[in-house]
Amino acid sequence: MAVTALVVDDHAGFRRFARRLLEATGFVVVDEAEDGATALAAVRALRPDVVLLDVLLPDTTGLELAETLASEPKRPAIVLTSSRSAADLGPALEQSSARGFIAKRDLTPTALSALLGTAS
Amino acid sequence: MLVVLAGGALVAAMIYGAYRNGLWPPLEKAVISWSLAFVGVVIGAVVWQLRPESRTGLYLVAWPLVGLVSDFPVVFSASRLAVTLGYLVSDAGVLFIALLVLTYPSGRVTSQLDRVLIWIAGAFAAVYGLVNVVLFDPRPQYDATILVLQPHAVPLTHIGSYDATGIRNALDAVLGILAVVFLAVVLRKLVRATPGGRRVVLPLAAASGFAAAQYLVQILVFGGPVNSWTNDSWFWIVTLTAFAIPASLAAGLLWGRRARVVVADLVVELERTPPGSVRDALARALGDPTLELALWLPDRRSYVDADGRPFALPTGSQRAITVLGPADAPVAALVHDPVLLERRALLSSVAAAARLALENERLQAELRAQLAELRVSRARIVEAGDEERRRLERNLHDGAQQRLLSLGLALQLARAKLGPDANGAADLLQEADEELRSALDELRELARGIHPAVLTEQGLTAALRTLAERSSVPVALGALPDHRLPPATEAAAYFLVAEALTNVAKYAQATRVRVQVAHEDERVLVDIDDDGVGGADPAKGSGLRGLADRVHALDGELELRSAPGCGTHLRAEIPCA
Predict the structure, then answer these.
(1) In chain A, which residues have their Cβ closer than 8 Å to the Cβ of B471?
(2) Domain residue limits, chain A
(3) Which residue in chain B is spatially nearest to A19 when comparing CA positions?
(4) Which phi and psi (to 5°) does residue B495 adopt?
(5) 3-state class (DSSP) for residue B284
(6) What is the pLDDT of residues B133-144, one digit of tens each?
């Protein structure tokens, strides 16, 4: 059975390419969300296995949303991503309950597979 | 004037009546007592004339007048009307004493407690008068009690001959309690008054307190009402008390003459007063430590304090305001104890004497106000600059950077689709991807230099950690604050450390740098020490000067110690609540 994914980012351009990248890696992208509230609703409705989550969102931060999602009944594996590097984001990243962090410029099928295991 | 004439005529008629009566009342006592009452009326009339806006004059006149009327039954004992009037006001003095003391000096009731006390005193006087005129039949009692020395006519309103002694005893007990409460209130007023106010209140308060004490003595020492016509010592107590009130007020007015001495002292003192201390000199001269000085700035058409901070004149009756100088172009305003209004002569002479010093003070305040404004605007400029930097960083991040990142993803996908062959297209894509990475790195470096996102989002401590990680010279981080500081303070501290680390890397030849930020005693201390060659010159680098400006804009200080061979020590001290 296919592994489902949700892309959360406020940039439509990034969402478009991220969807294709995930699909090329073997995930089934079930939805996209542009902010924290939409993302939470989508997670509750669609229960994706993986959430690719931007750290900076218009209404919340990816770190906060990750904590909320971690307490959901069927918690998805969360991959945080950002246009900034891990060093720029500081120590808060290390304390997050997300599966891991991949900077946007390092986002490749290989990096995703390494973090999540192969999708199919 | 009319009141004085009427009072004089009344006293003359009463003395004549007493003379005609022969035995009662004793003529010499009557003359002394009523003449002093007349003097009281005259003093009251003078005060009334001088201060028509205060009701104190009215009360001062009324008090000896009701005393005279209450003596009617002794003089005109055959007239039913005179006896009725006399009985009716026999204790009205209590009401006027209460009004006088509790409303002095304004003649207006200011507190709820005073209002209640006055109502009780009024009710007492009314009940006592009514009991007398309705129930007290003086005929059978004149030889049974010392209170009535000769037969009085029956009051016009008499309805029945009850023995009212019980009721009157009860009322006397009420009077005793009232006197105790009243004494306490007068004492409280004295204790709470400002020294200047005390000077005004003291004479009257003392005399009135004495009057209240008189009622107590009557009850505690003599055990009840005493007839002053038969008891010599009681006669003197009552008469002198009745006179003490107008007399003490006159004394209080005379005291105002001291103003000249006060002003002479003030002129000498102002010579030596440093700028900013004129208020203290005025407060001492006026005897009002609560005095506040508001200086008028014509350019702004508003008042400021000696430090140039805006000053709002209070409203309401708790404080009085005296504006110095012409109304359309004031120099200053004094906010003071309302009681000082009773000493207008002192107030205006002190104001005149201080005029020059106040002009000077006003210029100083204007200067301070401008300085304060300058300081605020400098801080505002730095803050606006920081905001602009934050906005730029966000724009770079949200705009160009995001597009380049999407482009990177597109290249990744293209490479995946092409597979390994394609006439070297894969290599081309690989190169494009590397070029893109460099562009992103440069853009990120640029954004970080403008305003690091980690500083905005996670604060100074996190931002300094990333700074330390990226430094080419090893950085040892000491204690750092565990809470967020105001954005301007965080930005100043961050850019200071960033600039210092850049300088260390460029010039210091240091092997290690120590950075520490402490927030204690309402200030933030930023320390950066290196073990390099020293000899840094703040005049050379514009970077450090810009940082000094930034620190100064926050009212802080920047200190640089960099003796050759001894490393460089940079310390910023920024006020922070």
Answers:
(1) none
(2) 1-27
(3) B409
(4) -65, -30
(5) helix
(6) 777 766 655 444
